[in-house]
Amino acid sequence: MKKDTNQRLHENAARPSRRLRAQKRTSAVIFIIQKGKIRKDGTLLIVARITVNGEMVHFATRMYIHPDRWLPKDYRTAGKTKEEKQINEMLEELRVLIRRKYDEMLRHEEVITAGKLKNAITGLDRNATTLLQVCDRFIEDYTDQLKTEQCCRETYLRYKLTRNRLAEFMQARYRLPDMAVKELHPRFATDFDR
Hints:
The protein starts with a helix and ends with a helix. The longest helix is centred in the middle third of the chain and has 26 residues, at about 80-105. About 10% of the residues are buried. Helices cover about 50% and strands about 15% of the residues. It is α+β, with helices and mostly antiparallel strands and about 190 residues long. The protein has two domains: about 25-125, no CATH class; about 130-194, no CATH class. Helix 3 packs across helix 4 and helix 5 packs antiparallel against helix 6 (about 155-175). The chain has a three-stranded antiparallel β-sheet, covered by helices on one side.
């Protein structure tokens, strides 16, 4: 029996067009351990794998775990020790950061590739201003004022100390040498203040 014209039109309207199917974007973030590069203490590097539209890139998280403590199907540690729980928290924060960056790029209608997303996350984004760059510029300006004796040397030393503490904090907490200012969140300030 032949379908009438109205029924065919209705079925075609419900089906997405080829153009919409072609624009469909897919992305995934998983964490794996890098086998084959065992450290002296028996731990392996945890690597982030970002996949966007079939393109895959990897980057080091700067976190290490014993292979028997890693749950490959869950993409996380077993979470029984304090250190493992902390690693799981950091991995989740990294996953959220990647997702947030992906959504931001999507909102700005940028062409999103796995490589571009990785560069934005790892700070290789040329346009990103980092926290330590801001601190260094501020201290440099303050140094100029110090030469004209418009400010206090003790305050200058406190600014330098705070800048160094920020660098140590980012390395210890996030295992990153620096972070883009636009990626900072309120929890960063709360954690740093402790």
